[in-house]
Amino acid sequence: MIEFFTSSTFQTVLSALNSGFFKTLQLFFITLIGALPLGLIISFGSMSRFLPLRWLTRTVVWIIRGTPLVLQIIALFYVPGIWKWFNWPSGEGGRMMAVCVAFIINYACYFSEIYRGGIQGVPKGQQEAGQVLGMTKSQIFRHVTLLQMIKRIVPPMSNEVITLVKDTSLARVVSLQEVIWMGESFMKGNSGIAGLVWPMFFTAVYYLIFSGIVTMLLGRLEKKLAFFQ
Amino acid sequence: MAILDVQHIEKHFGPTKVLEDISFSLEKGQALAIIGSSGSGKTTLLRCLNFLERPDHGTISVGGNLIFDAEDPATQKEGEVRKKRLHFGMVFQSFNLFPQYTALKNVTLAKELLSQERPDFKEKKRQILEEIREEGEVLLSRMGLSDRAGHYPSQLSGGQQQRVAIARALALHPDILCFDEPTSALDPELTGEVLKVIRSLAEQKTTMIIVTHEMAFARDVADDVIFMDGGVIVEQGPARQVIEHPREERTRQFLARYAENGGA
């Protein structure tokens, strides 16, 4: 048993999976950093009193949520080149860039609906109380609505974020070398190793540990916000 | 001179007329009670005064200054409306306290934000915030809530929450304090403590408008009473006279119905 863990095969596979998982993490965090604020902007658009803007944002959200993320990744990666708009930089960096854009747009649309629910879920009386106390619109948002909204959106957000942990594996459709791609590579042949099945399944350990950590952190945040109702 | 003068206010929601030709005035230090059945427009009237609704017609003056004229868009600019609202304080039926802040912070928050606009805020920040906090504590103790300053709204009873809301409204020193059915969301045994606070405010000559279903309270505490029905003022006059010897038939019917239901 111990021999297996110290074998050069295991070491080779592990370091490949590690580098694959590092890419998975990159994709995960870049998506969050981009989609969390973008989602808020989209949610403002979908609640706008200016009808054309509201109609436009809701249509975009409908299309993005109504089609598979895989399809969006493929489209974003190949279509600009096919239609001669522009080319993504070649190699792994370009693939990562295209995939990140697809993920950010997709997740921002999901987040925007969660934000919208959170904002609209704060009773109107809260806003009115701020108004009669002479607060500006932005003061009301920052000091009255925001924290109540955050409290409301943490549980549905947790769901999405945990889904994102696993959705990152969709990036392999354009051969981004994330952890599943790496695991699979040892079946096909990588570093002189081929026909090895276990690395593929071993990737589950990475996902489990990471989603476990994410669940714990979000649970902690939820507890932190339990001081008010 | 009247502190508040309301002339010919009208408000429609779509085709429905909610307020029709509402005119009244209020002297400084006086308490005005507005009574009437649900849907008679009482709450909408208060909301118009606080700029939560925009009247379709009419004017509102405070201390002789015209602050709203439905015909003059210059009196309705967003930035100025915010300042004009401060003439009025508002206590809501459902309290609307900010759940994420303690009782004390609920009272002081708006004043802290307003003080940021003071030119000397940066130099004297510490001192200003300290003063605001002290004033908030004084207000809470006047409401009998000194020992609840650090509690969150969810840890307070309905009556305590409404008293915090009153302190919050008083913190900005409004010219006129408005109450929208302040006890309607409370259990009967909790209404007393809130009414007691409002009564003591009346004794200290706080200018107030109180929308209420508590007839006996209106009679004893208010100087004047307005009875509204179907969006119009049916009768107005000295409190005791309107409630004990109403001149209008509709007022009589309303009060009789009330007495039957164990109201007044």
Mean of residue pLDDT values of chain A: 92
Number of strands of chain A: 0
What do we call the CATH homologous superfamily of the domain at 2-97 and 174-260 in chain B?
A: P-loop containing nucleotide triphosphate hydrolases
Question: Which class best fits the helix and strand makeup of chain A?
Answer: mainly alpha
Q: Which term fits the overall shape of chain A? A: flat
Report the radius of gyration of chain A as a whole number of Å. Answer: 22 Å
Distance between the termini of chain A: 53 Å
Any idea what the radius of gyration of chain B is? Answer: 19 Å
Helix content of chain B: 25-40%
Helix content estimate of chain A: over 70%
Secondary structure category of chain B: alpha/beta
Biggest sheet details of chain A:
none
How much of the sequence of chain B is in beta strands? 25-35%
CATH topology of chain A: MetI-like fold
Number of strands of chain B: 10
The CATH superfamily of chain A is MetI-like
Global geometry of chain B: globular
How many helix segments of chain B?
Answer: 9
CATH architecture identity of chain A = Orthogonal Bundle
SSE order of chain B, one letter for each helix or strand: EEEHEEHEHHHEHEHEEHH
Features:
heterodimer; A: 229 residues; mainly alpha; MetI-like fold; flat; B: 264 residues; alpha/beta; Rossmann fold; 6-stranded mixed beta sheet; 4-stranded antiparallel beta sheet; 39% helix; 25% strand
